[in-house]
Amino acid sequence: MKYAAMPFLFPLSVVLVLCLITDVGDCRMGWMVFGSCILKHMGFPALLNKDVRCAANEMFKIFYKMTTRKCINCERYFYCQSNYNAVYNCGQNFKSIHTAEVISNCREFLQGGTDSRANQKAKRHGRRGWNCARKYLCAVNCKYNPSHGTCSLSNC
């Protein structure tokens, strides 16, 4: 059966994979809480929208890099870049902006509470289309190199 015939599999697989690769505690409950948060704030019909699916996928790719690379001082860069990619690679419309906002907020909720003002600012910075690399790489001593996708001793 083709993916198009089963559109609900994509959001469920994204939720499950995000749960497995992020440090969210008990994964069995975590993915259900995360999924419930997404559905509560977006509704199931929104998950069928191509811009919503695109934005979720873009955020997943950046969150995956963040959790697998584990570069020091780079969390805000990844928050910013995931929101930027979700919006600017996926239609630059209300759906992609709202998806980035909901996923960011649900992820933070799942990890135990309110986000710091600085993290929220980084996410807004990305959604507004500002330069994440200029603001959150060398300026904060982040060692991630986006060109190579690696952490290094010297990035600047």
Automatic annotation (TrEMBL):
Endpoints of the signal sequence: 1-27
Keyword Signal included in the entry's annotation: yes
Keywords: Signal
Highest rank taxon of the organism: Eukaryota
Pfam families, sorted: SAA
Keyword Signal: yes
Official protein name in the record: Uncharacterized protein LOC111087723
Lineage, broadest ranks: Eukaryota, Metazoa, Ecdysozoa, Arthropoda, Chelicerata
Protein encoded by which gene: LOC111087723
